[in-house]
Amino acid sequence: EDQVTQSPEALRLQEGESSSLNCSYTVSGLRGLFWYRQDPGKGPEFLFTLYSAGEEKEKERLKATLTKKESFLHITAPKPEDSATYLCAVQARSSASKIIFGSGTRLSIRP
Amino acid sequence: DTGVSQDPRHKITKRGQNVTFRCDPISEHNRLYWYRQTLGQGPEFLTYFQNEAQLEKSRLLSDRFSAERPKGSFSTLEIQRTEQGDSAMYLCASSFQKAGVGGNEQFFGPGTRLTVL
User: Fold this and answer.
1) What is the pLDDT of residues A14-26, one digit of tens each?
2) Closest CA to B108 of B24, B51, B46, B10
3) Where are the beta strands (DSSP E) in A1-111?
4) What residue in A sits closest to B92 (Cα-Cα)?
5) Closest Cα of chain A to B80: distance in Å?
6) Contact A46 B56 (CB under 8 A)
């Protein structure tokens, strides 16, 4: 069964303190891996899609990387406005539609 | 704003009542999805439409749930005889189906928060 596990569940960092969020996945053939950001009471906001092992994508202070079993979201010198829940999701090659989400990592950046 | 919109944003109802939610996708997107999200969890897939055809439904979607997309544009999700366990955020997303094997990024609306008393 396709599955996504994110760790840690919650992470508190000081402003400027870089770190990484982990997303481990098992899927029967990966069509795509997605990262989203979700603020409280709002819908997920699309960040990145990764398709194959070795691929990397960057946006401002965020960089996503992908291996055959996991993905990392690296956050460099975070600011308080980066505080949010970060969700990882996968789409299997066998699925034309459904994406399976992890439970997310709640990131809190203290000024 | 040309993003996905949902209405209402909040709905409080009594157990046993019927509720209906509306989703307006991004105009050029041909696929529309419904998800449910409970506190501390990621969204769970419920169903999706390609244009007006409903092509997949999750086992989570009981007989009390029905979704429509009558003209391939907006969609409605109806829950009949609501139960307290239906309390959740209901999210709508849309995407444009690409040819080939690439993943299709889904763009989410703000959600409808349902509370069943």
Assistant:
1) 999 999 999 999 9
2) B24
3) 3-7, 10-14, 19-26, 30-38, 45-50, 56-59, 62-66, 70-75, 84-92, 100-101, 105-110
4) A43
5) 24
6) no
